[in-house]
């Protein structure tokens, strides 16, 4: 981050200016969003925090934790807030619903909609609601409505909304959000599906939602009626498969045996870059692709590569599986994609995965190649790849 020195380093305005300058290098594209970040005093929404921390564009500010230390609420990092506000393309006079109240983002939205617009922020936690109201009042944004309610049901009293901006991790799109959109409505939501999370800007089109844009992003999970827990399938104490939805019936004893058997490696001859786009392609081009997580101990033992400590998409067939890796290759611009495969069918599963890597590199190696749709249950079963949700389905196609 660009920082001021001397006296300026302790000046919130100087730090805010530096933060906006940094965000404007690669994130903020519009004058309106830059102006909002330049005006709103972020430090007033994080009392007690160091100014250097508050104005670090990549640092979220945790405002409440559970008894186990898990973050329950936070003021998101300024970087992801800027990304989502650019996705939203908010205009003066719009009506906006924010789900998940930290106060700061609502103040940014209030700047964007102006005095003729309206901002409603909803949160299920009374402590967070009280905190957001107090911070907004201190910062001079009394016109923002902060409502305590379960965001699963929206806030119908202030509907319709031209924009709904979701600042919690959502597993589904509740019917209320779609019903409370205006005809020109857009929902910007960090949506979890197939084991990954993407911030998707959905436009309302013919009764369902179609992506306008998407990018990498994750948030504190939604609470209340919209809460959802992923399924964990332990292979052993050090390695786990994680899936959204029910366990598809993995052959755990066979997979456990495969983990400690010799592995094979296969290289694609294709460049490795944009791993978030590549991963989205892999998980939406096959059925039941879980994410493999493993301990640092197994990495140190040479069983897995370091990627598994953060989670990586795995293709599973019976008692065999493969996951993506990379190696240096200057001829391809720096890195080459490949796979490690385990189990009696390692050759076959490796070939299948490598085929996906090559297809992505040949046909879809660019930003925004996926079309993500959300179809309510009433719209029927979508064509192609999709994953069912409580209230509908997420469908992904490539173009």
UniProtKB/TrEMBL annotation:
Gene3D superfamilies documented for this protein: Vaccinia Virus protein VP39
Pfam families for this protein: PCMT
Keywords associated with the record: Cytoplasm, Methyltransferase, S-adenosyl-L-methionine, Transferase
One example of a Gene Ontology biological process annotation: methylation
InterPro entries: Methyltran_FxLD, PCMT, SAM-dependent_MTases_sf
Gene Ontology CC entries for this record: cytoplasm
Protein family membership: Belongs to the methyltransferase superfamily. L-isoaspartyl/D-aspartyl protein methyltransferase family.
Name listed for the protein in its UniProt record: Protein-L-isoaspartate O-methyltransferase
Organism: Micromonospora inyonensis
